[in-house]
Design brief:
Structural class: alpha+beta
Number of strands: 3
Order of helices and strands: EHEHE
Radius of gyration: 15 Å
Strand content: 25-35%
């Protein structure tokens, strides 16, 4: 039986960010659904395990990626992401981990 990278029977959170240089009408939520479906049986048995989902799109031709807070990421991931965003027209960042109650936020503004 697969170990699902230690996520077997775990409640999870998931993040999908889509960075693009060209205008798009992609809906952040609809873009994230196939990502979670494709990771089924790889990271988890069923995507119902993802109790909190965050999805977003970011137009790098209009906004400065360097102003995003990436301090929680390891330096090599920051370097890879920065390099990909500067050289590619489309980049999808995916993060999945164990759910914690403090991830639920209210009145974010």
């Amino acid at each position: 039986q697969p170990d699902y990278h230690g996520f077997h029977n775990s409640d999870l959170y998931g993040i999908v960010y889509y960075f693009h240089k060209r205008p798009t009408n992609q809906d952040a939520d609809n873009l994230s659904k196939p990502v979670w479906d494709s990771l089924q049986s790889i990271l988890y048995r069923d995507d119902i395990s993802i109790k909190l989902r965050i999805a977003g799109t970011f137009d790098t031709s209009q906004k400065d990626f360097q102003k995003l807070d990436v301090t929680g990421l390891p330096p090599d991931v920051i370097d890879d992401l920065t390099s990909a965003i500067s050289s590619e027209d489309h980049v999808v960042y995916v993060e999945c981990g164990r759910m914690r109650n403090d991830l639920f936020r209210f009145n974010i503004e």
